[in-house]
Amino acid sequence: MKLQFMRHVFRSSVPGMRRVLLVESGPRTLSERFLPVLRKVCGEAVEVDVFSCLARPEAGALPGIHNFYRSQDYLGRPGRMLLLKTLRANGYQGMVMLCSNSPLLFRSKWALALRLPVKVLIANENADCFWLDSAHWRSAKSMLAERYGLRGSASFRILGQMLLFPFVLAYLLLFAAAVHARRGLRLLFGWQPSSRAS
Q1: pLDDT value at position 154?
Q2: 61 pLDDT exceeds 80?
Q3: Structural domain boundaries of the chain?
Q4: DSSP letter for each residue of 70-120
Q5: Residue percentage of the chain with pLDDT more than 70
Q6: 3-class DSSP state for residue 174?
Q7: How many CB atoms within 10 Å of residue 96?
Q8: CA-wise closest residue to 135 among 149, 148, 122
Q9: What's the pTM?
Q10: Looking at the domain covering 19-147, what would its CATH class be?
């Protein structure tokens, strides 16, 4: 299978959006809230397909949806390859990635974003959105900072912890190695620490 990857990351231009894949990586209410916004961003005529791990929506819950793909129908490597082949054949120009601080489809949405030749639109739980490209890096940075609490003094504390982590890890590994080496020498040579008389 020919490798194809996310497009237009380094360009701010947005291609014409005729067909878009919405990855429902959050609660259904978020998708319902974001669909009208998506139609404003991409045009009312855009065809929208949904990839989800949730149950098929009831009639009228997600109006105007063309195809609905469930992750449970594509299990294992053969299933994932079939899903990727099917989605590529649909010829999407864009993909919506819902980032709602939810674990739903976390790995799948990033895998699809990397493997499909699409322009990616990031949306949050407030239905705010931005294109994933070099022109919107400040929006991405702000969203990550908000999501992981990297604002104000907390960012310095987390940065300090990240810088100290390799040194702390190295110290703990050396300590563990020294303890196990002493134990190994004792077992190998039968050496016992001398007990002091009280």
Answers
A1: 58
A2: no
A3: 19-147, 153-191
A4: EGGGS-HHHHHHHHHHHHHHTT-SEEEEE-SS--TTHHHHHHHHHHS--EE
A5: 75
A6: helix
A7: 27
A8: 122
A9: 0.63
A10: alpha beta
